[in-house]
Amino acid sequence: MSRASSLPSVTLVLGGARSGKSLYAEGLVEMCAERIYLATAEAKDAEMAKRIDDHQKRRGPGWSTIEEPLALAGALKAHCQRGRPVLVDCLTLWLANIMAAGLDVDMETRTLTETLKSVAGPVVLVSNEVGQGIVPDNALARAYMDHAGRLNQAVAVAAGRVVLMTAGLPHVLKEQN
Fold first, then answer.
1. Catalytic residue among 55, 79, 147, 171
2. Mean predicted confidence (pLDDT) in 23-52
3. By C-alpha distance, which of 2, 6, 15, 1 is closest to 125?
4. What's the average model confidence in pLDDT over 139-147?
5. pLDDT in tens, 40-88
6. How far apart are CA 114 and CA 145, in angstroms?
7. How far apart are CA 56 and CA 37, in angstroms?
8. I need a labelling partner for 115 at 20 to 30 A (CA). Which of 70, 108, 130, 161 fits?
């Protein structure tokens, strides 16, 4: 049995900043011959460009990278094939992108979760858990936090496996056979 066939159709990897989410998610699919990294980040400043570069260097060769900051559901439909995993990194950057573009967050979330129900898989999605701190003091940050919480909940329902990363340690929250 290949590594890809042992993964559920959808896996969600959650955690805080620098919790080891991306590294863990990459490890789930790194042994697969074909794998796609679907990147949602945009290098809008030097610091983000360095983060992206660091991620690319860490991954090394063997990954096909597709950059898609907005049309995530469409990219999944176009690139998911049975036995070829797609890693989406990350949902919370995608959320920031759709909010900045003035798109309907609830509709985009529904479109994504409906797409996840029908993809060939496996898909591994990385997302930040942003709601465990203090409530932000401004309306935009509170809206982002609320949308992120609802997005993570909706994707967790669609996922066969949900893993919470804490200090580099995976905690399996959901595992469906």
1. 55
2. 87
3. 15
4. 96
5. 988 788 887 787 777 777 777 788 899 999 999 999 999 998 888 999 9
6. 22
7. 10
8. 130
Task: Give the Cα-Cα-Cα angle 60, 12, 111 (nearest 5 degrees).
Answer: 105
Q: Which domain holds residue 132?
A: 4-175
Give me the chain's average pLDDT, please.
91
Distances (CA, A) of 88 to 38, 55, 132, 135: 5, 13, 22, 27
33 to 30, 64, 85, 88, 96: CA distances (angstroms): 8, 11, 10, 17, 32
Residue 29 structure tokens = 């699919």
55 among known catalytic residues: yes
Q: Per the structure, how many domains does the chain have?
A: 1
Please state the separation of Cα 177 from the chain's center in Å. Answer: 21
SS3 164: strand
Q: Which two tokens stand for residue 160?
A: 């066969």
User: Other CB atoms closer than 10 Å to residue 121's CB: what's the count?
Assistant: 23
Angle among Cα 129, 71, 171 to the nearest 5 degrees reads 25
CATH number of the domain residue 157 falls in: 3.40.50.300
Half-sphere exposure of 34 (CA within 13 A, CB side): 9
